[in-house]
Write a structure and sequence with these properties.
- There is one protein chain.
- By secondary structure, the chain is of the alpha+beta class.
- It folds into 2 domains: about 80 residues, PH-domain like (Roll); about 120 residues, Rossmann fold.
- The chain has 5 helices and 13 strands.
- A 7-stranded antiparallel beta sheet has the order 4-3-2-1-7-6-5, with helices on one face. Strands 9-8-10-11-13-12 form a 6-stranded mixed beta sheet.
- The radius of gyration is 19 Å and the shape is elongated.
C-alpha cells in the first residue's frame, strides 16, 4: 500500500481537509473535493516549507504535508515500479494463477521470462493467485506447499466497498493455512495484493 496522510489541500478555488494517498502511479485526495493526479500528467512539482506543489490540469494543487512533502515529491519523480514493490527479481521462478492484468503480465515476462501458468507448480519463489471470493481462499493450503521455504504467495483481489473479499478475509484464511501476512501493495486501480509467507519457525 502507498503512503497516506491527513492534510489540507488547496486546488484552484477550493480548500479542504481530507486524506491524501500516494499510490503506485497516481496521487489521490479525498475531502470536500476529490483529486486523482496520474504521475504522467504532472506538469510541475516542488516541495517548499512543508508544502507539496503539484501542477496538473491547468492548475496547482498544494498539499500541506509538513516534513513528508520532500519524500512525496521524490516518490512522484522516481516512482518504484510494481514489480519492485512485489519483490520480483530476475532469475526467480514465478507462477501466475488466475491473474489476468495485462500490464503486470507484460512486465513480468520482461523480468523473469515466461511464468508458470495455472498448472502444476513446485519450488516457486513467488506465486500470484487471484482470489475474487472468500471461497477461493481454500486453495492457500495447497499453495503453501508449492513455494520455497523463503518464498511467498501474493493474493491478488478486488478492492473497494463492493468487493466480495476483504484483506481481513485473506489474513484469516492465511493463518488457517499456516501462512503469515507481511505486506500489502496497491496492485492496480482495481486490485490489491497481500503477501503471505511461511513463518520462519516453520521453514
Amino acid at each position: 500500500m502507498g503512503s497516506e496522510a491527513i492534510c489540507r489541500v488547496s486546488y484552484k478555488s477550493g480548500v479542504s481537509d481530507g486524506k491524501a494517498l500516494l499510490e503506485t502511479s497516481e496521487l489521490i485526495f479525498r475531502g470536500d473535493f476529490r483529486l486523482k493526479i496520474p504521475f504522467n500528467q504532472v506538469t510541475s512539482l516542488s516541495a517548499l516549507d512543508g508544502e507539496l506543489h503539484v501542477g496538473y490540469d491547468g492548475g496547482v494543487a498544494v498539499f500541506e504535508l509538513g516534513r513528508e512533502a520532500p519524500k512525496w515529491a521524490e516518490k512522484i519523480r522516481n516512482p518504484r515500479g510494481l514489480l519492485d514493490k512485489l519483490g520480483v527479481k530476475q532469475g526467480m521462478t514465478v507462477a501466475v494463477l488466475g491473474v489476468e492484468d495485462h500490464d503486470f503480465i507484460s512486465q513480468l515476462r520482461e523480468r523473469v521470462g515466461e511464468p508458470a501458468w495455472g498448472g502444476p507448480v513446485s519450488d516457486a519463489d513467488l506465486v500470484f493467485y487471484e482470489a475474487d471470493r472468500v471461497d477461493d481462499l481454500g486453495r492457500l493450503k495447497t499453495l503453501r506447499d508449492v513455494i520455497k521455504p523463503a518464498g511467498g504467495v501474493w493474493v491478488v483481489s478486488p478492492k473497494g466497498k463492493t468487493a466480495e473479499i476483504k484483506d481481513t478475509d485473506v489474513m484469516v484464511a492465511a493463518r488457517e493455512a499456516g501462512l503469515l501476512d507481511i505486506k500489502v501493495v496497491g496492485f492496480s486501480q482495481t486490485h490489491t495484493a497481500l503477501k503471505l509467507v511461511i513463518p520462519k519457525a516453520d521453514r
